[in-house]
Amino acid sequence: MENLEILKGIVSDETYAALEAETKDSKIRLGDLSTDKYVSADKYKDLEKQLGKVNSALTEKTTEYDTLKEKAGDNAELKAEIERLKAENTNTVNSLKADYEKQLKRSTVINEIQNKYHPKDVNDIIPHIDMEKISVENDNIVGLTEQITPLTESKAYLFGNEPQRNKSGLKHDDKDYDTARLEAAFGITKKE
Length: 192
Hints:
Radius of gyration: 40 Å
Distance between the termini: 83 Å
Strand content: under 5%
Shape: flat
Order of helices and strands: HHHHEEHH
């Protein structure tokens, strides 16, 4: 008998030895159904039937699909609806692409204005810029300088010539700031 060792620890050693002696020429196999390695014959047959039903349903639906596909080949209304949906999809994609490119252009222009012209508030500058006259070509912004240079002269109060400070009020490039004053502000004391 195969797999007799699964009974060790379940039956006494004497019973195990007797079973081993009695079944040594037997072709029977023992299986531990509690390990989920094996299923009962009834469960297997039920699953086999279920698989057969699924396969036949799949074959039936494939046949129905093929039949409908053949019928649709002659149906001008269905073809027209498909073409309408394709056109609608193309229009939606083009619209989304145009919106994306518009937002990308706006973002690029805003970054350029902030980095090159240092406005006090970029939102005060944007209404004076005609985005239609600006193009972005190979990381170069064409048409912005022509619009912003007169603006820096006529509305100079919108621009700051000094580097912006962080919210702490300290300059990032100032190497002579008062460390003691900063430590006192944060309550840091030196250990001696």
